[in-house]
Amino acid sequence: MIRKTVSDVKEALAGVKDGMTFMLGGFGLCGIPEKAIEELVRLGIKDITCISNNAGVDDFGLGLLLQKRQIKKMISSYVGENDEFERQMLSGELEVELTPQGTLAEKCRAAQGGVPAFFTPAGYGTEVAKGKETREFNGKMYVLEEVFKADYSFVKAWKGDEAGNLIFKGTARNFNPCMCGAAKITVAEVEELLPAGSLDPNQIHVPGIFVQRIFQGKGYEKRIEQRTVRKRG
Prior knowledge:
The chain contains six helices and eleven strands. The chain has helices at 9-12, 34-43, 63-67, 83-91, 101-113, 176-179; strands at 21-24, 48-51, 71-76, 95-98, 117-120, 134-137, 140-146, 150-161, 166-167, 183-194, 213-216. A hairpin with a 2-residue loop joins strand 6 and strand 7. The chain is globular and about 50 Å long.
C-alpha cells in the first residue's frame, strides 16, 4: 500500500516557491485548508496566484495572505465578504480575474480529468468572453474555456487515510473534491487521519490516486461567516 502521509504541514508544503499558482478548496469559511494557508503566511512566499471561490474574510482564510500582500492575482467568483480584497482590487494593487462560479468549478474538474478545454454558455456576451473563442452549438452560443494550470492544490477533508482516500463532511464537499488531482501536487489536510483500509470504500468521495500528500491538522477554528439569530421575545 502506498502511504501518502507526511509528518506535518511544513513537510506537506515542501517545494512551494514565489510566483506559483495554488488552488485552495472551500466555500466562504467552510472547508478551507486553514493549516496550509497558515503555513503559506509563515513562509512569506510572494507573487502567488490563488484560485479559490472567494478569499475568506479580512482576518481568516486567504484574507491572511492578502494582509501580507503575498497574493499577486486572485481567480475567484465572489469577493463580497473581504474588505481588504475589495480595497486592493479597486486600488489596482491586486489583479483579479472574476469567473462564473460554475465555470470555476468546471475548470478545476476538467483539469482533474485531463481535459484541456471545454465550451460553456456562461459568460457569453459579457466581459468574461472577451478575447476567447466562441462557437454556436444547436443555435446557442458558447465560450471556450481553458482549464486551470496550478502547481499545488490545497484541500481540507473531514477524514482521510494513509493512502490519501478522502471523505468530506457536509457542505465542505464543495470545491475541494474537484480540486484534488487538478494540480501537479495535491495536499490534503484532514481532521482525522486513519490507517489505510479503515474507511468504508462506499463512503469515500475522492480516491487516494488524486492525492500526493496528506497530514492531520489540529485546532481547526470552524468559524461562522455570518451569524444571524432571532431576537428573544
